[in-house]
Amino acid sequence: MTALTLSSSSAAGLRADAVVVGVAKGPKGRAVPAPGAEAVDEAFGGKLGAVLEALGASGGEGEVTKLPAPDGLKASLVVAVGLGAAPEKGAAYDTEALRRAAGSAARALAGTKKAAFALPLDVADDTAAVAEGALLGAYAFNSYRDGGTAGTDAAGDGKGAGGAKGGKAGKTGKNKANGAGVKAPLAEIALVGGKRDKAHRAAAERATVLAAEVNRARDLVNTPSNDLDPTGFAAAAQQAGKEHGFKVAVTDEKALAKGGFGGLLGVGQGSQTPPRLVRLEHRHPKAKQTIALVGKGITYDSGGISLKPAGHNETMKCDMSGAAAVLAAVAAAARLELPVNVTGWLALAENMPSGSATRPGDVLRMYSGKTVEVLNTDAEGRLVLADALTKASEEKPDYMVDVATLTGAMVLALGNRTFGIMANDDAFRTRIHVLAEAAGEQSWPMPMPPELKKGMESPIADIANMGERMGSGLVAGLFLEEFVGDGITWAHLDIAGPAFNTSGPFGYTPKGGTGSAVRTLVAIAEQAAHGDLA
Ligand code: BES
Ligand code: MN
Ligand code: ZN
User: Fold this and answer.
1) How close is the Cα of 441 to the center of ligand 2, in Å?
2) Which end of the chain has a smaller Cβ tally under 10 Å, C or N?
3) Are residues 391 and 469 in the same domain?
């Protein structure tokens, strides 16, 4: 993983391959070098803004301009990233603009060894944002390419993600991943020109853990289903627990059968690879509250007998993104030693059609004792989550949050970058929305209209796993609520849109697995540690 340091060197004096500066949109459309760029501007004879304008730069968000460094800088390349509108005098730069700019710069520097980031770093929040954005932008999933960097090992088996053959890391200097032009991520990030006091150091450390865990989730999501099945996912969780000191307990298919986990077993029974329920636990002696995080972990969603048509299944390795986010968030809580108890539940299964698969029309007896008529085997996420929610509820957590790539309807409603939040408590739902925003994740509160429950009535079972087509993202949330223990404050995050980026990369977000919801879950845990969640 990319290394990050707070350097005492100046932007001009640091031995690096490139220097990153910010450029803001000033009055009258001028490109204005942002705070932190002073030394670089000086090396340009005070003409950095003019040079950038001559090159067509305007300081817009996402804009990246590369220019050769003049004499006076140790680096040979200057990368100017747009920060959007310059803030009013004395005001701070927008946190997300800083994160995204740092991420765009890091992506533009893939294949480079070391870069100095001379962006605005006045307050610890700036340092946090730049560090986080840069580390999240410096991500690549190259495990499956000849001579891939082998920097990832999602399966935790030491073979590289899913056992793909890993080659040697790139040579220093150019830092190429291989001869085929696949670039390794920027290897070293030095933040220059900022303070290095306790607050800034703590911000950088938190950002480093957070980014490492978001990148863990991305690796898991990107690993193809032939190399990451429920058993492999459980093994990866055990490996992470060992490494970072949290407890991991795996329930295998025999124990699931004995326990009556009809949802997990019903979804998993068509697959050659059996389901698992994994319990993670981070505990802290000073903890006053306990939160339970529950993740949908469908390692591949073919739809089952209600098979998805071509065009709808190519990205369905991403259907375990919720479980990946939960694992990453618990690991982050452990690494940050948050004074809160966090339990994580991974509901792992592969949804496949076969002679042993659940048929549309079958009735499952769930762990809660409720019976469910499975009208559509492609509505499988709610079935595995139901069992995990019931199980998690037995421990009576103060708060429970599930995360799932649950419905295409949520993607239709909110698009590819925003997750939906539903909850049995309006204040809790609002709280999560606000925390997500501050963490740099787009989300929107969604309702739980009680009249949609009627559509889930079954003529033979307690409930069906489908309801009305209109509002079917909300129907899914209403189904889950049936399995939440009495008196537990609960929220459901439907990350089907933002979990997997099928368009081009932007800011610090790569193509493929994004690590959606990890930062929001960590923010929720931190808030609970302060004792003022909801
Ligand atoms: N995993 C899918 C939802 C999904 C869709 C995730 C697109 C990511 C991108 C889920 O299991 C599913 O198939 N949901 C169905 C439910 C329907 C059958 C009630 C859907 O949304 O169509
Ligand atoms: Mn499905
Ligand atoms: Zn699914």
Assistant:
1) 24
2) N
3) yes
Structural domain includes residue 526: yes
- Nearest one of 269, 380, 374, 280 to 329, comparing CA atoms: 280
From 30, 159, 308, 511, active-site residue = 308
301 lines ligand 1 (CB under 6 A): yes
Q: pTM of the predicted model, to two decimals?
A: 0.95
Give the distance (Å) from ligand 1 centre to CA of residue 59. Answer: 39
Q: How many domains does the chain have?
A: 2
Based on the fold, state whether residues 174 and 263 are members of the same structural domain: no
Same domain, 168 and 42: yes
Q: Are 218 and 512 in contact (CB under 8 A)?
A: yes
Together in a domain, 217 and 355? no
In a domain, 337, yes or no: yes
Where the chain has pLDDT below 70, the residues are: 146-181
Distance 337 CA to ligand 1 centre (A): 36
Residues 382 and 494 in one domain: yes
Question: Domain limits at 199?
Answer: 1-223
User: Which residue CA neighbors atom 5 of ligand 1 most closely?
Assistant: 408
- Would you call 382 a catalytic residue per the annotation? yes
Alpha-carbon gap, residue 528 to 530, rounded angstroms: 5
Q: Give tens-digit pLDDT for 410-466.
A: 999 999 999 999 999 999 999 999 999 999 999 999 999 999 999 999 999 999 999
Task: Give dist(CA 209, CA 30) in Å, integer.
Answer: 37
Give the residue carrying structure tokens 């029309």: 361
Q: Looking at ligand 1, which residue's alpha carbon is closest to its atom 14?
A: 407
Catalytic residue from among 100, 113, 218, 382: 382
The residues, ordered by sequence, that sit 6+ positions from 50 with a Cβ below 8 Å of its Cβ are none
Tell me if 466 CB under 6 Å of ligand 1: yes
The domain spanning residue 147 has which CATH number?
Answer: 3.40.220.10
pLDDT of residue 532: 83
List pLDDT tens digits, range 223-248.
Answer: 999 999 999 999 999 999 999 999 99
Residues 211, 294, single domain; the answer is no
496 touches ligand 1 (CB under 6 Å): yes
pLDDT of residue 446: 98
- For residues 491 and 397, give the distance between their C-alpha atoms in angstroms, rounded to a whole number: 13
First to last CA, the chain: 35
Question: The domain that contains 391 carries what CATH number?
Answer: 3.40.630.10
Q: What is the pLDDT of the chain when averaged over all its residues?
A: 94
**316 C-alpha to ligand 1 centroid (Å):** 9
409 lines ligand 1 (CB under 6 A): yes
* Ligand 1 contacts CB of residue 17 (under 6 A): no
512 burial class (0-12, 13-18, 19+ CB within 10 angstroms)? Answer: buried
